[in-house]
Design a protein that fits this description.
By secondary structure, this protein is mostly helical. Helices cover 75% and strands 0% of the residues. The longest helix is centred in the C-terminal third of the chain and has 39 residues. It starts with 9 loop residues before the first helix and ends in a 7-residue tail after the last helix.
Length: 349
């Protein structure tokens, strides 16, 4: 006898498979388009590889070695095929595999983004609750003004301001860098997850964890400014839309305090748009870290991308673009699956 619910997971699996296939197709389109744009830009990667004193024959040999003498369509097909095999090409600037360079630098950037998103959630959701709870009153006005400022302020200007205040004036935090070399040399971090701060905490390496945390505070606050602002506004708007629903009115009529009505009942209905926004904010924050890394002199994808653009390193530029696109697509896929788990009606859309 077939039990009720045996096929309950099949729609979710089909939905996940459909979304995964769509994400792969989008990623292939992104890398092909980026490679085409990079190819159109006037540059001489073979000359960069060979150096300024290389002869014309040497440059021609390197162009043939790198496959730059083939038609652009053939180059794109070869690149996409290589990416599927795990070969993202060689960096013209570093002469190393692009994928290896990216995987080495990704943990620092990803750690900064995740820390910023965590701070954004911790600040944005309670601030949105406060604004909705005192709608139209002084706390609401203050929260909305702060959210407007956080969404509008340029990240590089905020980074410089925090450096001047907390590093230069007060001396509370490091002004730049991702770690103190002397501290990590004396207390090396054992890699578990790839995120340095989390690995140091999980392995009980207190000295390294404290140093990494001190260096992460200011960049994470800068990255968190935009997510906190948009989450505050979204939570506030979602709660104000939800409190008029009949079941929320019934809960209020049963005598529940307003704090419980908003926090326990209305906020549950606001989580779906919050999850969806987090995927968008993740992509925005990932790109924002490029400027933040430049200001705080942190090694990561941002510095690598900037150096690649300056040296016309096409494989590296395309590699960074592809990696950011894959991370963004993965975040969207995770949010879609989380929404499907919270609200099965999403699968039917």
């Amino acid at each position: 006898m077939k039990r009720a619910g045996d096929g309950r997971g099949l729609p979710v699996l089909r939905y996940a498979a459909r979304r995964s296939v769509l994400s792969v197709l989008v990623a292939v389109g992104v890398v092909a388009l980026t490679y085409l744009i990079a190819w159109v830009v006037p540059s001489d990667p073979a000359g960069v590889w060979a150096g300024p004193r290389a002869s014309a024959a040497e440059r021609a040999r390197i162009r043939e070695q790198l496959g730059l003498d083939r038609p652009v369509v053939e180059q794109i097909v070869a690149y996409v095929t290589g990416v599927l095999r795990g070969d993202w090409g060689l960096s013209v600037r570093t002469h190393r595999p692009v994928l290896g360079d990216l995987l080495t630098l990704l943990p620092n950037t990803l750690q900064m983004v995740l820390a910023g998103l965590l701070v954004g959630l911790v600040v944005g959701v309670p601030a949105g609750l406060v604004a909705a709870r005192w709608h139209g009153r002084a706390p609401d006005v203050l929260v909305r003004a702060g959210a407007l400022l956080g969404a509008s302020i340029p990240v590089f200007w905020l980074a410089l301001l925090l450096q001047m205040l907390f590093a230069s004036r007060l001396g509370l935090l490091p002004i730049a860098g991702s770690h103190d070399r002397a501290v990590l040399a004396a207390h090396p971090v054992t890699t578990l997850t790839g995120l340095p701060l989390l690995d140091a905490a999980l392995t009980g390496n207190g000295a390294a964890a404290a140093d990494l945390f001190d260096h992460l505070v200011l960049p994470a606050l800068v990255v968190a400014s935009y997510p906190a602002a948009v989450l505050t506004r979204l939570v506030r708007a979602s709660l104000l839309d939800t409190v008029g629903e009949p079941h929320i009115q019934m809960v209020r009529a049963l005598g529940f305090p307003e704090r419980a009505v908003l926090g326990r009942f209305a906020l549950r209905l606001a989580w779906n748009p919050v999850l969806q926004l987090n995927a968008l904010v993740f992509g925005y924050s990932l790109v924002n870290t490029f400027l933040v890394e430049a200001v705080f002199d942190c090694p990561g994808l941002g510095r690598y991308a900037a150096d690649a653009v300056r040296s016309l390193d096409v494989p590296a530029v395309v590699g960074v673009t592809l990696l950011v696109a894959l991370l963004y697509l993965a975040a969207n896929l995770a949010v879609d699956l989380a929404q499907a788990a919270l609200d099965p009606r999403v699968i039917l859309r």
